[in-house]
Amino acid sequence: MDHAVITLCVLAVAAILFATEIIPLAVTAMGASIALGLLGVLTPKQVFSGLSNSTVVLFAGMFVIGAAMFQTGLAQKIGLAVVKRAGSSEKKLMASLMLITVILSSISSNTATVACLMPVVVQICAAAKISVSRQLMALAIAANVGGTITMVGTPPNILICGALQANGMHPFGFFEFAYIGIPLSLAGIIYMLFLGDKICPDHKEALAVLETEEPEKEEKKDSKKMVICAFILLAVVFCMGFSKDIGIPMDTAAIIGALACVLTGCISEQDAYRGIDWVTIFLFAGMLPLAHAMDISGAGRLIANWVVDIIGTHPSPVVLVIAMFLLSGGLTQFMSNTAAAALLSPIGISIAQTVHVSPYPVLMAIGIAASCAFTTPVATPPNTLVLGPGKFKFMDYVKVGVPLFIVSLIVCTLVIPIFWPFNP
User: Fold this and answer.
1) DSSP letter assigned to residue 42
2) Residue 263 has pLDDT above 80, yes or no
């Protein structure tokens, strides 16, 4: 059997298991990678390559730093300060958190933004006695849409610029993405405030655990360690924000920060191990090889060609943009957004040239859709990060994400042609 067909079959089975949760999500993810290895699609080294991926390492480091923030009382102090300023209104807190996250994600890694803010958000919810799951879902969504505002906000933006340059065309400007990124971010915030918060589950048990353990945390608070933890956190955030300028990779900065927390006594070695959400680690590590298999086996290209056959070789420009948005957005739910954009960018340019329209609106649709990874917990690192703390199930992402994906499609269909005409 062809490797592309095998990969699609494994993906279909994994999708069913993810949706039904008959077996744990992490087991499904790792099982899919192992199955691809046994079936010859991936090499033994590729099957477990996800465990050494830089993003997985980043996860582990930030989990430890997040745990240290709780251990020293820093997260609680920040949370209470924000609550005093924002009040206990769930919508006001959500709007404030999403706005902050959008801004941070536009100029730095959305993964790092969520990893840094997540423990603070959880503590804010505990202090204000509001749903932690809704706020964390809003946090993940804001991180995804915020990355679309600038060229460096998310990898697909950089990639589509590279595709244009490779074809002898001028790339998009650094802030040119803001023409669609800002409307998309505003749509995401409005959606979560007035519809998403009603669809998203209200998991009170997460708060109950925090409130039960609070007096334990009170005994461990130390003002000196709190200051040290704050300094470590700020140093890590700085290194992540300027990683390219100072030459320190984000995962390295996270691990150094985690080690510093242990060495300075902000958190014990045992608590550091306990602070790592191993379900998240194995879930993401298991899905990375599957995404790689989608790329190298030709399964992703098979899907792309199938869609092109449906829309025909001479579709209308609007239909082309909608089709490429749906295809890119569909692929990015199960493979990396970078891989989805890399796969579709040359196809988009080719089709645009064939039907004699500008490739800019087509590539913008592909790049933006690749960041609209709302509908599965494995679609993007921010989604995976909030999975455990938010007590989410696979279908929670589907329920909240699908309507938002449709909203994003509508926004892009209306806005993209305004700033990037089909026939300039």
Assistant:
1) S
2) yes
